[in-house]
## 1
Amino acid sequence: MSCKVRFAPSPTGRLHVGNVRTALINWLFAKGQGGQFVLRIDDTDLERSTKEYEDGIKQDLTWLGLEWDDTFKQSERFAEYDKATAKLKADGLLYACYETAEELDRKRKIALSRGRPPVYDRAGLNLTDDEKAKLEAEGRKPHWRFKLSGKPCEWVDLVRGPQAIDTASISDPVLIRADGSYLYTLPSVVDDIDAEITHVVRGEDHVTNSGAQIEIFRALGGKTPQMAHTPLLIGADGQGLSKRLGSLSVQQLAADGVEAIAIASLLAKIGTSDPVELKDSLQTLASEFSFEKIGRAPARFDEKELMALNAEITRGLSFEDVKDRLAALPLGDKANDAFWALVSENLQKVDDAAIWLPIFFGDIDKADLEADDAAFIAGAAAYLPEGEISEDTWSVWTGALKSETGRKGKGLFMPLRLALTGQAHGPQMNQVLALLGREKVLKRLG
Ligand code: GLU
């Protein structure tokens, strides 16, 4: 049987590297097996979900190349959730509770103060019809909890190995709020059953959820998918990424000029037994994917590693590849093959070429040099070999300047580099000189 997975973001924000990794692992697993990748929009929280975020998430996935075979929204499926609710109620597995948030909080505190785990005491389960009628007459509306078995729920996780969640140690989960709205837990199971999802692949923050959800799968008579819970991402400093996720959104990374395949190459390999290296395509990453390679330790996301991969891609791009993107930068329409060949070696991303465009095709500010360096530059033009500048001109010229002034090494090259490019670093000066051409060189020395 071919596999079918789903990625289920809530449209309450754009995608960031954490959820992209979940999407990517789902996609790589499915495509590596010739299976299907479904995009499910978890928008049961009608207040926080927006169409803009839904569209944004689709845009982010498309940009990353993570195309979906099918997509649907939970908000279109309330009738199905209502049916499942009716079945659970009829089977005595969904029961009404009337506590307010404050009352629940008090119960939790009392349990803790007595050294007991703060597990819901199932008071709702023991209410008589009369008691319920009385509470409702007081204006209370019920919320609904699923009755867990109280036994260990076991499964063999594809990443974590054998798992056992003792359902006696967790509270019966609330599936429906007092205002009638669904929490994520039940709709997710109903959807996974109806869409015939074979593997649920998500972050390890859902492990406890899985204990409850597996019991709901069984209660609804559905086939329980295989489960895989991946460790969460941490930053290079070992800290959680939650505070920095805004700057690590796909939208922001794309705007910053990071290439999609750099993101995928990194996210597919961190926290696995494979080395992190640049891959040519998602297909290659899919062919290399296996749950067995994913370790149990958190995966370290290092932006420096991302930018190193991005620099590697940038070096490998041809002028044809980047022509349109360069054209969007000031003076970028003047860029040519020789320019790209020269500057691409030192760029972390295509847009960084913006620094070099005015240097080669426009004007730069006069370099702010020490007095003796300024005097050296003012005299340097006289030694520039006659005729058109070629890649050999630099060595002839600096040779002459060296014997004339006694300057050498950095003292010789740095003032020239600064005067001609305004930058302390950059491509090889013999090539810079040739690309600048005689007129610009003389102007900047003068
Ligand atoms: N919407 C849920 C989340 O983003 C989906 C979890 C799941 O994959 O089941 O956490």
## 2
Amino acid sequence: MTRLNLAILISGRGSNMEALLKAAAAADYPAKPVLVLANRPDAKGLETAMGAGIPALAIDHKPFGKDREAFERAMDEALTEAGTEIIALAGFMRVLTPWFVEKWQGRMINIHPSLLPKYKGLDTHQRALDAGDVEAGATVHWVSPGVDDGEIIQQASLPILPGDTADSLAARLLPVEHQLYPEALAKACALVSART
Ligand code: GAR
């Protein structure tokens, strides 16, 4: 079985990253983590990755100022050097330029905490509550130039309960994300491998 070299991009806690690393610890999982990359040097997930023995690197976006593409060129160099074949965005909170998205199109996926196409962008849990929705969920999708806009790979949902707040909903959704993301990444790997 082909195991694709996986890079995971994070900005903070990295609990979805951790779920992917756990799944990929199995020898028959179709992705092999080669790099965890954060755009914030204080991202907690970096420590988790290092603890799991995965190369982890911070490329701080701040010194690049408004030059998003220069920041992405630095990321791209690190990704290429690591031999990356597929990228999973896991709570990576920077909008990517068309240059980077096009470079990795068809090899980059994202997890978003809503049932897309509903609630692209931020505050997804509050927006689901404000709309009076009876269910919420998460989506794993291919990354395309539009924000949270690419083709859907897999979704998982859960009921919204009376008295739910954005925080309680986010807390109940997180373990659902942790189950969903490794499954969806495995699907994405199968599609990428079939193409090459
Ligand atoms: C997750 O809920 C993920 O779905 C969300 O950020 C959180 C990251 O948590 N992603 C987005 O909102 C992307 N638009 P984690 O760092 O513990 O995985």
